Request: fold
Amino acid sequence: MSLEPQDYEDLRQAVARLEKTRFIARLTHYAGQPIEKMIDTLPAGVSDRLQGVVRATVTRLLGMALKTMDARSRRASPRIHKVAGGLSGAIGGAFGLTALAVELPLSTAIMLRSIADIARSEGEDLTTVESRLACLEVFALGGRSAADDGADTGYYAVRASLAKALSEAAQHIARKGLTEKGAPVLVRFIAQISSRFGALVSEKVAAQAVPIVGAAGGAGINLLFLDHFQETARGHFIVRRLERSYGKERVRHAYLEIAGQATRGEEKMS
Reply:
């Protein structure tokens, strides 16, 4: 069974969203200088502090995902969340690293709401633990890891690396809820999300820490950040919607075929 024409077009759009230019390239273009150099100029100890804040934030998001998501189906409202995200970014730009522990949880909570909004609009049942954890999965799918290379940064490669931790976390939560927050399976799941999400947070913080950025620049950076994860979420939940209709293997095969065609097209143009 091949995909219906509209579903195939939806999948093509999902591939474009999930395999497109990395966030760091967009951020470098926005800031006008390489983000790697900005990261190198951050004060000593900031990296460790960042990882602590990211892990605490992801842990808090897990609680939010399981307790406060509205499962009622409705159209996604990305613009509303972008306005809120821009305001939180203005705080980060105005106060720099001193606002990190306040701004990051706030901006990621806004992003989680936006991701859930998109998930609902693509037919996800947010009454299920698996769908709610899929919302958190977006933070890893939109991120990257220091261990990444060209072979393991594609959408399905990252999903595969997260599959075991996500499945174990879902099973644990279904049986015991969050009463055992320090359970090894939850710790592993949080660590995998945090490691990939944390890399992008470092880039965002480095850009916002530049003295000339200010509140307006911080808002702009946050809008880029939010837009990146909204695009990732839309692509991810389109794929999941199609998987429910056609099966995972058929969608995966079609996805990789489209991605391969796009790569060959880029090679011919270069």
